[in-house]
Amino acid sequence: MDIAAAQREMRTRFVGGFYGQLVSGLLWLTSATLATWSTPRAAILTALLGGFFIFPLTELFVRLGGAKPLSQLSDLRTLGPQVALVMPLCMPLLIPVTQYRLNLFFPAVMILLGAHYLPFVFLYGMRMFWALAAMILGAGTFLLYRGTTFSGGAWYTGAVLLVFAVAGKVIVGREGRAA
Length: 179
Known about the structure:
Layout: H1 3-13, H2 18-37, H3 40-51, H4 54-64, H5 79-90, H6 94-100, H7 105-124, H8 128-146, H9 152-178
Helix pairs in contact: 2-3, 2-4, 2-9, 5-7, 7-8, 8-9
């Protein structure tokens, strides 16, 4: 299988990242809600513990949506799980950052998340992931130095992820209708 065909298979099966961004966006908004109306501890625990379930929940929704498994011939079938592992492996960095200043938690996670989305450009063969990565990474960097609230980055990131979930679904839907 060539790379373009493998990317098309990934795009189609994962609906342009729809389910992953949907699950992630809802998690970020849940964490933002807790950050705003509960405690920072509840928000952080929700973000961290919930993050471990993003890929399994995404896979569950993909399967419930009727998608077939990836082809055994796909050159990209192992890249998705590798990319998914980047975030939990980077989480120890959040401990000293958050101990230094609690308000840096969400901006730091945003920077990690933005960087995490860069390989998706290749994985799905979709340039929209450049924009998603830039918007989250850029906002996280800005908030790292200029952020004044604990929850602001979480609200922003949740909203951006939901917008890109819909965008990915629309792009893949148009591609399917054109084919």
